[in-house]
Design a protein that fits this description.
By secondary structure, chain A is mainly beta. Chain A has no helices and 11 strands. In chain A, strands 2, 4, 5, 9, 10 and 11 form a 6-stranded mixed β-sheet that branches. Chain A has a 5-stranded antiparallel β-sheet with strand order 1-3-8-7-6, with no helix packed on it. The chains are: A mainly beta, B mainly beta. At the A-B interface, strand 4, strand 5 and strand 9 of A face strand 4, strand 5 and strand 10 of B.
Amino acid sequence: RKEVEQDPGPFNVPEGATVAFNCTYSNSASQSFFWYRQDCRKEPKLLMSVYSSGNEDGRFTAQLNRASQYISLLIRDSKLSDSATYLCVSSLSGGYNKLIFGAGTRLAVHP
Amino acid sequence: DVKVTQSSRYLVKRTGEKVFLECVQDMDHENMFWYRQDPGLGLRLIYFSYDVKMKEKGDIPEGYSVSREKKERFSLILESASTNQTSMYLCASVDRGLGGYTFGSGTRLTVV
């Protein structure tokens, strides 16, 4: 079983739609969580951290449910420029800060 | 902004060659990582380093070695390149503690 599992998609949505991605992690010792965005043939870039209380950054909202070991990302009012692969990421506690990446969910926003 | 620089964007090497992939970061980060990324498999950790001359195996270290002689530089070495090492290689760095990585722009390696 993969440590971080995501629906690979693709999610095909029209501009302006709201889309939600879900992710589960298997290691209950995971301490930190992130969403990364990766454009085609580019490196991953940090989109946002995920906090237990939930956090919002403009059109993006991330939620963490530690009891269910579940992380989500909600994108409101989708733009064409949101088309990318979204990677769910967890980190174990400890000084090495080793991140575990999900395989990613592909989003395609169309006009 | 932290910058992580990988020496080559594209490389083509022959089977059996020794290949060096270089990564340099400019923010004095302790921790550096090498991943490979393949379709459907996501990012898989090859090796990481938490200090100069220190290294730890990741999930798929076979066929690779690393070198960290200076804090800012972390090199990945393919001792004898094979076709199954054709992949996108990504270097990342992060400071101690809990935080997101900064990635280099990647090296797309093709072994023929």
